[in-house]
Amino acid sequence: MKRLAVAFSGASGSGKTTLISKVAKELIGRGFKVAITKHDPGDKAKFDYEGKDSYIYSSIGADVAVVSPNRTTLFLRNGLFGGNERIGLDSHKTKSEKFEPNLENFESEMANLVNHFGEFDYLIIEGLKSIRLPRITVFRDEIIEDFIPFSNAFATNIAEFSADGDKFGLDDIDKIINWIDKNAKKV
């Protein structure tokens, strides 16, 4: 097992789920086991409904976890990446808070999540832009500067885009997988 971890970020509607699905489907088609974690900062996810990210990811054959401050689809007793103290905050309810994972606990919480997946070749994390993993940011039709400092590479349909890091088209799946193989973190 390769046990490589990489993250994807981007604004809502940027095409993260579509791109991750294409990458995961290709990796699974090549015989690799893929695990995908989606961040739900508002703790409001509905799981496994048609059209929802968790449904899309599991329908292509990936193992899936949706992590939030209070729960995950893995039915962990304690939520990952935040904790119960955040749930009642007005900024949490309105999704206006800037989520910053507790980096002191991050390594142990990540290890806990990884252990629940068991054996895998690739772990793809959608969101959690502050965690320290190699990251591809997705921009479709619009560059959002807030994501650039957290990014190592970019997948975009914008031709006139310049920033430090490798750049890919939104359909450059083989190139993106090659980048992941060279840059992902071994977990």
Q: Which descriptors would you attach to this protein?
A:
globular; 187 residues; 8-stranded mixed beta sheet; alpha/beta; Rossmann fold
Secondary structure elements and their pairing?
Elements (H helix, E strand, L loop, with lengths): L3 E6 L6 H14 L4 E6 L13 H7 L3 E5 L22 H4 L9 H15 L4 E5 L8 E5 L13 E4 L9 E3 L4 H11 L1 E2 L1
Parallel strand pairs: 1-4, 1-5, 2-3, 2-4, 5-6, 6-7
Antiparallel strand pairs: 1-8
Descriptive overview:
The protein is of the alpha/beta class and 187 residues long. The protein is 27% helix and 19% strand. It is built from five helices and eight strands; from the N terminus they run βαβαβααββββαβ. Strands 1, 2, 3, 4, 5, 6, 7 and 8 form an eight-stranded mixed sheet that branches. The longest helix has 15 residues, at 103-117. Residues 74-84 and 95-99 have low confidence and may be disordered.
Strand content: 15-25%
Q: Specify the biggest β-sheet.
A: 8 strands, mixed
User: Which structural class do you get from the secondary structure elements?
Assistant: alpha/beta
Q: CATH topology, what is it called?
A: Rossmann fold
The stretches of 5 or more residues where confidence is low (pLDDT under 50) are 74-84, 95-99
N-to-C SSE series? EHEHEHHEEEEHE
> What is the radius of gyration computed over CA atoms, rounded to a whole number of angstroms?
16 Å
Total E-strand runs? 8
The total domain count is 1
- What is the distance, rounded to the nearest whole angstrom, between the alpha carbons of the first and last residues? 11 Å
